[in-house]
Each structure stands twice: as C-alpha cells, then as structure tokens.
Write a structure and sequence with these properties.
Length: 578
C-alpha cells in the first residue's frame, strides 16, 4: 500500500513545483497540500473502502482547483492555465471514476461528476459515463435519460445523440410523461432550427413534412396513446405555442381534447383561453375574441355545472380585468355579470366574494349587498371570513341590531370556530358600548360555550380587567372564572403572570394560581407541578417542595407521566434551577 501511495504522490511533484515556481502558494502551503493528499491516499488504499473518504478527497481537490484559478487570475498567469489546472482536473477525473466504480449505487456521485465535467469541459468523458449510468440505473430512473439528453443537446450540441437518449428511455419507460415531453420539445426545436437555416438560405419548402413539424407530430401521436390525460395534452399544446409553424398541430391537439375529454373542465378552459389568443384568425378584434371565449365558458358551465368550471371561467376574466389599459369598463361588466351568475347558480367559491363585494361597495345602487352577503353565508355557512365580512359590513354602516342577529346565526353555524367573530364584536363594542362588552364576555365565559370559545376569552377578559380596573378586579374575576367549566390552564398562567407584574407581588394570590392549576390539570400534566415547584423555590417557601413532589407523584395518573416528572425534577435539581 505504501509503495502505491508513494508512486501517486511522486506523480504530483511536477504540479507542486509549478505552483511554487509561479508563486501560487509558498513552501509551507505546498507542504500542507502534499501532506493532506498523502493522508487521503492512505485512506483510499485501506482494505475497507469508505465512501466519505473518497468524497472528502474529491472536495479537497475541487477546493484546491478553485483556489488555483483565483490565484492564477489574480497574478495574471493566463498562459499557465493548462499546466496546473489540467493536472488537478485529471486527478479529480480519476478520483471520480474510482468513486463511481466503488460506489456505483450512489447516483449523487455520478451527478457530481457530470457537474465537474461541465466546469472543466470534459465533455467526452461525461458522454461516455452517461452510457454506464443508464445501463446501471436507467431502468428505474427515467429522469436520467432526460439528463443525458440535455447534456448532449446543451453541452455537446449534438441533437442526434440527445434524441437517441430520449428514444432509448421511452423504449424502457413506455409511459413516461417526462420523456415524451422532452422528446416533443426537442423535435420542435429541431424543426425550428431547420426552418431557420432554410429561410436563411432561401430554400424553405413549406410543403416539406419536416418543415411542417411532422417529427414532433409523430412524437405527439405516440405520447397521447400511452398517456391519455387531459393535463398532458394541455402541456404539449402550451409547448407548441412557442413556434409559429405549429398551427396545424395546435388545432389537432385542441380537436383531440374536445373529442376525448369533453367532460373535463380543463378541456374547455383551454379551448376558451385559446380563443383569446386568436389561434385560428389573428385578425379578430379583441372584444370579439373575449365574447367567443365567454360563449365557450357559458356553454360548458351549463353542461358541466361544477364549481371548478366556474372558477376557471372567473379566473380567466380576472386575468383580463387586471389589465386596465384597454377596455376597462367592457372587462369589468363581463366580470361582474359572471360573478353574479355564479352567485345565482350557487357555484361562486368563497375567494371571489371578497373581490366582488369590494367592487359593489361603490357601485351597488340597488343596495343588493346585504342580500348577497346573507345568501353567501347561508350557502357557505362554515366560512369564517364570509361571516366576518358580513358582520363588518353591517357594523361599518351602524346596523348594530342586524349585526347582532347575524352574530347569533354565525355562532350556530360555526360553533367552536366562531372565536374570531367574538373578538370582532368585542373590539367593536369596546369603542361603542362598554356595558355590551361586559355582556359579551359574561356570555362567553358563563359555562355555556365550548372550550375553543370560552377559554381564550377568559384570558382576554382577565387581561382587560387588569388593565382597566386593576389587579383587585382581575383577582375577583379569576376566582369565578377559574371555577367555571370549561377549565383553562392558560387562565392560571396568565393570572400568575399578572401577579408577578405587580409592584408588590402577593405570595398568597400567586400561590393560589399554582394550586388551582395543579388541582385541575395535575393528573395529566407534569409542567404544572414543575412550575409550582420552581415558584416556591424562587419566591415562596422552598420547604414545601418535597410535599409538592410527593403530591405530584401520587396525583399523576400514568406511570409514564410520573417517570417523566421525576426525570424533569432531577434534571432541574442537577442544573440548580430548583
């Protein structure tokens, strides 16, 4: 092993001498480079091979190559590029090949090698290695065929090899959407290049099948037989729109969509949008294009009657409406009419109501908004945002009684999800009617509400009392709230925090928060016991800690909780936090 290492180290001597000669590194740095390489070589020559050793050696040489480039450019040694950098690149090439040979199953090493080859322009080496990679991993990884094709096409400028890789991949992965898409793109690009060359030489024959895109059409015909999916056809259609010679192919795809996927909303969304770009006749006026587009949506909304179809229709109109530079009123009227039609058909999705209501606020001469909001919350009764919008609308107009009635309806519909509406009403009445605020808090915390409503509002009420009426009022309310189901752990934590903020904290009242928390939650929660212990140790009576510990172990229901508590206690004790 030592002889092999020494032999490989001797091979690096001319390279190191060259580095020193051109003052890229000083003698100490050269010795460190040689020493580090020797260490890696001995690791690589061990009987048991370690992948991480290979990768670290590769990374070391990559870093060195990068550093040499920077130093050479800094020193202006342009003519010396090949001598040193090529030597390091060759070593890296050997290291990568060795790593790949030993750890063939790790595709990441192969991919790192290709990235390296691109950096140092070892194109031929990479091309050869792609064949080996596909032979080993190509059967279960179609993406690798795409990578190989992209390499040949983008780096080596060889479209024939790129096409061959994709066709070989499709021979194995007969229903690979990825490979069919890449092959389709490649053929269109190939035809476009051929057409451009023919135009430049004045030899373009429009009747030539190749110039008409026949190679891409063949790929398409094969693809749709293997992958009969509407989204796939739409994807291929979008690709064709990049080229002006594909009108016939585009019409073929659209025809196939209509014929084979007439019950899929995406088909008619695609067909309708196609009218906007005027594929068949680019001289059609803009308004006429829009009317044709709308007509297709309207026809298929009646046929399919789905919310998805309505959403696609509205999204298209919204995209049109965003451009206010042309025909803004025309676009707006069409959009508003569509929104109203979707609402009447009870197919308008939640997100569109907000935009529609904003528009109607300034133009609703018939005062239809209250009815629209009422109908929206009746149909989408589980939508918290819609109920919020309805409440805000009435409150902003001073329609308090109407808002109160809507609030009651919302609570029935939303149940435990109505908390944002409670907070909205409380916030409104804080500015308008303080007695009404008290009524709302009492209603929320009297034990009739579910925990999702009652408990957060208990905490909010306690904070409000402490700020507005002082700690005494908060203590009085806490005594009642703490004993009223549903019990709330956060209420005890909040009260304890409020007590600690007082200029003269009351040990009695603070302790009461911890005892109540342990009483109500101590059978299943270890934190309440640890908080109680930490409180007594820091602020109260440390002699009580042992009693609290004993009570905790006897109160916790599960042995796993007891064990967890004891571990927490011992850890805190060893860290001197108790």
């Amino acid at each position: 092993m030592a002889e092999s290492v020494e032999l490989r180290m001797e091979e690096t001597i001319p390279e190191l001498e060259e580095m020193e000669k051109h003052q890229l590194f000083d003698k100490t740095e050269i010795k460190n480079i040689a020493k580090r390489r020797q260490e890696f070589e001995y690791r690589l020559h061990r009987q048991t091979k370690n992948k991480e050793d290979c990768l670290r050696y590769i990374q070391h040489e990559m870093n060195l190559l990068k550093l040499v480039r920077l130093k050479r450019q800094k020193n202006g040694l342009v003519q010396k590029k090949m001598n040193i950098e090529y030597s390091i690149a060759n070593r890296l090439n050997k290291l990568f090949n060795e790593a790949i040979r030993r750890f063939q199953e790790d595709v990441r090493i192969w991919l790192s090698y290709f990235k390296f080859c691109k950096q140092v322009r070892f194109y031929t080496s990479a091309s050869r290695m792609f064949y080996q990679l596909l032979e080993l991993h190509g059967k279960d990884k179609p993406m690798l065929y795409k990578l190989a094709s992209s390499w040949e096409f983008e780096e080596c400028k060889c479209i024939e090899k790129a096409r061959k890789f994709l066709l070989n991949g499709l021979h194995i992965h007969k229903d690979s959407r990825l490979l069919y898409t890449e092959a389709f793109k490649l053929e269109l690009y190939y035809v476009n290049e051929r057409r451009n060359e023919a135009k430049a030489s004045g030899k373009l024959d429009p009747t030539d099948p190749v110039y008409q895109g026949r190679p891409a059409e063949l790929i398409y015909q094969s693809a749709v037989k293997k992958i009969p999916e509407v989204s796939f056809l739409v994807e291929l259609l979008e690709i064709t729109k990049k080229y002006d010679f594909t009108l016939v192919l585009q019409n073929t795809i659209i025809s196939d969509l209509k014929k084979n996927f007439s019950l899929d909303e995406l088909t008619w969304d695609t067909v309708a949008k196609n009218e906007l770009i005027g594929v068949k006749d680019k001289k059609i006026p803009f308004k006429e294009k829009v009317r044709r587009c709308v007509a297709i949506y309207k026809k298929n909304i009646k046929k399919l009657k789905t919310e998805r179809m309505w959403s696609m229709y509205l999204d298209t109109l919204l995209d049109l409406y965003k451009d206010t530079s042309t025909y803004p009123n025309f676009k707006r009227n069409i959009l508003v009419n569509a929104l109203n039609a979707a609402h009447v058909a009870e197919k308008l999705p939640e997100k569109y109501y907000f935009m529609w209501v904003d528009q109607l606020k300034s133009t609703d001469k018939a005062n239809r908004l209250p009815q629209i909001l009422q109908e929206a919350t009746a149909r989408l009764s589980n939508s918290v945002p819609l109920w919020e919008m309805r409440l805000r609308f009435h409150l902003n107009r001073g329609e308090v009684l109407v808002a109160d009635e809507a609030f009651k309806q919302a609570n029935i519909s939303l149940g435990p999800n109505a908390l944002p509406l409670w907070k909205l009403m409380i916030l409104y009445y804080q500015a308008k009617n303080s007695s009404k605020v008290e009524d709302l808090f009492k209603e929320a915390t009297n034990g009739s509400q579910c925990p999702q409503i009652a408990n957060p509002l208990k905490v909010l009420y306690l904070e409000r009392l402490a700020v507005n009426k002082g700690i005494s009022a908060a203590r009085k309310a806490y005594e009642q709230l703490a004993q009223t189901p549903p019990f709330c752990l956060e209420l005890h934590s909040k009260m304890a925090a409020l007590e600690s903020f007082q200029p003269e904290p009351s040990l009695k009242h603070a302790r009461n928060c911890h005892t109540l928390a342990c009483k109500q939650f101590g059978s299943s929660n270890t934190d309440v016991w640890m908080d109680y212990i930490k409180f007594e140790n820091k602020y109260g009576d440390s002699t009580l800690v042992s009693n609290i510990h004993l009570k905790a172990t006897s109160t916790l229901k599960k042995q796993s909780l007891v064990d967890s508590f004891i571990s927490e206690f011992n850890l805190a004790k060893s860290n001197s936090t108790i």
